[in-house]
Amino acid sequence: MNTKLALSDSRAITAAWLGLSAVTIVSWWLAPGHGGTQSGPSVPITVAAIVLGFVKSRIIIRYFMEVRTAPAWLRRSTDAWLVMLWTAVLGIYLW
């Protein structure tokens, strides 16, 4: 039974790592300036980058800080903290 659990955990962490890699590639692709031209601020790109930052930080906290197996109050608290943090970052940018 422990072997199955370890294999399941290993697969979950590998999937999380692949997800993080994918989000990183999408973040890089969204960044302006790949064409060598000067670019200005863009609200849609910034909002997308902040959403991707939220997703990445949630994956890291859940899978690499072992919060996915923690008590429900800790999972909810970390999710609430992330929502407040990224909402504040977005609010500061838009203000």
TrEMBL record:
Localization per Swiss-Prot or TrEMBL: Cell membrane
Superkingdom field: Bacteria
Stored Pfam families: COX4_pro
Transmembrane segments: 12-31, 43-61, 73-94
Membrane topology of the entry: Multi-pass membrane protein
Keyword Plastid set for record: no
Statement: the UniProt record of this protein carries the keyword Oxidoreductase: no
Principal subcellular localisation of the protein: membrane
Annotated protein name in UniProt: Prokaryotic cytochrome C oxidase subunit IV family protein
Organism this protein belongs to: Mycolicibacterium iranicum (Mycobacterium iranicum)
